[in-house]
Amino acid sequence: MPKLSYRDAINQALAEEMERDESVVVFGEDVAEYEGSFKVTRGLLKRFGPKRVFDTPISEAAIVGMATGAALGGLRPVPELMTVNFAYVAMDQILNHLALMRYMFGGQATLPVTIRMPGGGGHQLGSQHSHSAEALFVHTAGLKVVYPATPADAKALLKASIRDDNPVIFLEHEGLYNFEDDVPENVAPAALGKAALLREGKDVTLVGYGAMTHVALEAAEQLVKEDGVSVEVVDLRTLRPWDKEVVAASVAKTHRMVVVAESPPTCGIAAEVAANIYEIVFDELDAPIERVSSADVPLPYAKDLEQSCIPHAPDVVHAARKAMNIRTETVEPETRDV
Amino acid sequence: MEDGERGLCGDAGQVNKRELLEVYYRLKLARDFETRVAEQYAKGRIGGFCHLYTGEEAVAVGALWHLHADDYVIGSYRDHAYYLIRGGDPGRCMAELFGHADGPCKGRGGSMHLFDADIGFMGGYAIVGGMCPIGVGLGLSIQYKGEDRVVLCSFGDGATNQGVYHEALNMACLYKLPVVWVCENNKYAIGTSVQRSSAERSMAAKGKAYDMPSYVVDGMDFFKMQSVAERAVADARAGKGPSFIEAQCYRYRGHSMSDPATYRSKEEVAYWKKRDPIPKIKAAVRHDFEVSDDEFEEIDRKVKKALDAAVAFAEAGKELPPERVYEDVYVEE
Amino acid sequence: MYEITMPKLSDSMEVGKIIRWLVKEGDAVRAGDVLAEVESDKAAMELECFADGTLAEIVHGDGSEVAVGETIGRIAEEGEGAPAEDEEEKETQAVKPEPIVGQLVPEEEEEKEKKAQVPAPAPVDEKPPAVRRAGEHAAISPYARKLAAETGVEYERLKGSGPGGRIVAADIEKAAAGGKAPERPPDEGGANIEPLARSVLERYGAAIESVVGTGPEGQITLDDAIKALTGRSPARVKPSPDEELPPLDLQPGEADVTEAPFRLKTLARIVTASKHVIPHFYVTRGVDVTALLKRKGDLKESLGVTLTHVIMFACVEALKKNPGVNRSYERGKIIAWKNVNLGLAVDTDDGLTVAVLPDAQTLSLKDMAARTKDLVEKARAGKLSAAERRHPTFTVTNLGMYDVEHFQPIVNPPSAITLAVASALPAPIIRGPSIAIAQVMRLTASCDHRIISGVDAARFLRDLADLLEDPDTLAG
Known about the structure:
The complex is a heterotrimer.
Chain A: E1 3-5, H1 6-20, E2 24-28, H2 44-48, E3 53-55, H3 60-72, E4 76-77, H4 91-98, H5 101-104, E5 114-119, H6 134-138, E6 144-146, H7 151-163, E7 168-173, E8 180-182, E9 196-199, E10 204-208, H8 211-227, E11 231-235, E12 238-240, H9 244-254, E13 257-260, H10 269-281, E14 290-292, H11 303-309, H12 313-324
Parallel strand pairs in A: 2-3, 2-4, 5-7, 6-7, 10-11, 10-13, 13-14
Antiparallel strand pairs in A: 1-8, 6-12, 9-11
Helix pairs in contact in A: 1-7, 3-4, 8-12, 9-10
Chain B: H1 17-42, H2 57-64, E1 72-76, H3 80-85, H4 90-97, E2 121-125, H5 131-145, E3 151-156, H6 163-174, E4 179-185, E5 188-189, E6 192-193, H7 194-197, H8 203-208, E7 214-218, H9 222-237, E8 243-248, H10 266-273, H11 277-288, H12 293-316
Parallel strand pairs in B: 1-2, 1-3, 3-4, 4-8, 7-8
Antiparallel strand pairs in B: 5-6
Helix pairs in contact in B: 1-11, 1-12, 2-9, 4-12, 5-6
Chain C: E1 2-5, E2 15-21, E3 28-29, E4 34-39, E5 44-48, E6 53-58, E7 65-67, E8 71-77, H1 87-94, H2 104-116, H3 142-151, H4 169-177, H5 195-203, H6 222-230, H7 241-244, H8 262-277, E9 280-288, H9 290-294, H10 296-303, H11 307-321, E10 327-330, E11 333-336, E12 342-348, E13 351-357, H12 365-381, E14 394-398, E15 417-431, E16 434-448, H13 454-468, H14 471-475
Parallel strand pairs in C: 12-14, 14-15
Antiparallel strand pairs in C: 1-8, 2-4, 2-7, 3-6, 4-5, 6-8, 9-16, 10-11, 12-13, 15-16
Helix pairs in contact in C: 3-4, 5-6, 11-12, 11-13
């Protein structure tokens, strides 16, 4: 099977959907002539022309509003916000217009908008460039939120998001753009709202999304090797709606769960998953659900300091051992939960 | 009144009596509908925020006079008149205000969020200026598909200070989209006057800054309003890009039902009431045609009948039941 | 009739205050006129008129605080004749109960009803309830507890290996594998019963199973136990007056039973409560009205004044001299009325009603007579306005036309004194050294001893008697 990078997988998904449906248009800051600040939209202007792929001024609110209005007028816009951090400038248009217009207008408005946003920290970009805003979008009825972890998923889920008639926030992890993995020749759109079981096991369930799925997989390897336990790993893939069934079934089997999210713990995705799993499979839990999150601070610039704020595999291993009630002689990494 | 300013449908220079009476009907419908809304709000049948258009009718009637049925209109929360003039049914409108299921938005929108794509009314919006980029998007879709349509986007003087308004005007002019921007300059954003909030007092200048034709017009005069709108709409339709219309007008009532408008003097209100568009249209008809009081009164009766029926229709309805609260959050596959 | 209601002027408004009416009854009004200034929770606003016609009635006047939606006035629309008022509506309005202590009674009645409606105890669950020992609480994970139930492992005495001694699945699995036959914990009597109730029943030898529990989930409460033992509910709530009397046991055909009209029920409640709550005492004084009676004819002709009017007028004059009597006691507070609202008991076809002359202290004798005539007519027609039913600060009840010698009325709250006027009857009196026959009218003041003392009543009656015994000065 050919290997494809996360970036190229997204690029291909965009091209294939634009080829298939003339109403798909792409716009944003530097997406056309510059080919995107992360080069995700490389080649699209050349292939589809300036009517369908165009640059906008630095006007995030208007970019989103224009996408909303264009959708009302029958187009299927896929705007890009340069990073998730700049989405904050457009929050009113996203949360207070796009998300609720269908409902507010009694079902009369159909808004098939997919907003692509790169995010994720850990590259010394400073506090204003290192947000994880997924919790804000997941909290808002009317939006769907997707966050792929692998190139194959990035392609399949972006195609599905574009074809979905609802507003979709499509989050991409900047640190994964270069990550290469197997992607089949023909990728069909994947169903939104379905998690993936990446690894089967019976002693503990590790749940992640985006870059943290890889952290969970790494932790699973370590646990199996060092503790001889059997570890299950679930990749959420879609955050709203998220796959309660798969996660609950997994916890019903293993009785212990660790959720890892690269975002502060307060009111985050891990809290949402934990609260629901407590409700659904309370009697199956042998230990409280562990959350491994970023430090509840704006991310600092200094290299090591920043890294100490973000979850890594040893943090997940430590949490999993706590859930499994495994004591080790080694010094435990400092806990950082608030 | 100069002939050149009339410019209504029909032969150039020819003024059509039937059309003038139609103008009178639309102005009266908008005026009296809002009075009924005030009455129903005071009775507690309408809740939340309710913003009335009383006094500004000539702006909506004039701006919309030259639009085609499939053009788009998008505006603010002061939207009842736009909905009606666009062809919306007064009964359904009142039902929406009552929160009943037979309103166009099934009672989920209310006064500020009327919407009916069938008549090209793409929404009332509560966030000041928030509708502007959406208007841009509608313009983008028209240009992209090569359609023979325009967008009329209306907002108040307060919106011209909002960031996203500037973003939207810039993009519309940059891409030469078919959007006509109508600024209803009624001098106040709730209780803050233009003098106290806008460094640039001329709204038209704030349109001109984006390099498009900008007009200042007496929004209390239907003839002047429709004349300017005709030009702007024709330019947009011809692919010449956006225009900006500053309609100077006045709302007789407060910003909303709970605003006693103590920030305006009674003299100021009286001054603007003297420029009321409804007596002006009547005078115009009388000036040029044989018309009896009966003909106006017949229209008055027609309006009253329609509004009586509208209130009755709204009263007879009821809200969506709680079981249906989750509908229409998403398009279900 | 177009009802003008207190408008909802903001989405949070529930009560509005009428600052002042800008039109008066009888004025012509048109749609768009400003009728009044009204204060919402946010600001003072103008009340817009939506109908053309005449302002027929102002129901709530300046300064009134009225709930949103309540009628504050009425407009007779053009084309409408004289207002044809809804009789029933007027009646319900007429008997709006005054906010007095009597209202304790209906609330308590409601509470009793609520208690009687406690649902039957829930059906007994099939699973045996989890046994809980007082004080001890085994920390155990939910899954481990489930495993324990499935395998029958008794975990209370297990030492958990989880954090803080929590029992985890591994502990249960180990214990289950250990082969010990688990023992069922001893049955502590699974009945759902309050400990105190249990001990009471045990002491008196009553079987728990025979007692119906009315507590949460059918728990047997102490009250249930007492009721089972004594056959009576424990007296916790003050019984409402009706309940103290044994109910009538009627034979068929013995009597016609109809539902008492709302007005009468209200009256019954009020007078019962008044008698129940207010400590009554009575002071009687004979007044020589011989001179007054002589003037009866000319007073009627010249001023249209009757004896009752003179007595009412004299009461007001006496109240001016005894302001302490124009007060009320209410829940620990002294209500010192700024005006004299003179209540007059009126007999109507629908029963007794008290019509009130507001601000009686401003009226001349002639005016008082005219207004009282009008008031009585209105009372009989059931058309008293709100102000004419509200807060009598002093009440007069006159049975003089029936040859009654003496009677002691029930105090009519909020009046602290209710004055009974009996008939003027000939009686011997001592004048100087001789006995003469005078017309003596006995006045009895029924007093609320919480605020009126014997001396207060006596002084008032003395001043009243002095006025009545000098009709020339009184009536001029």
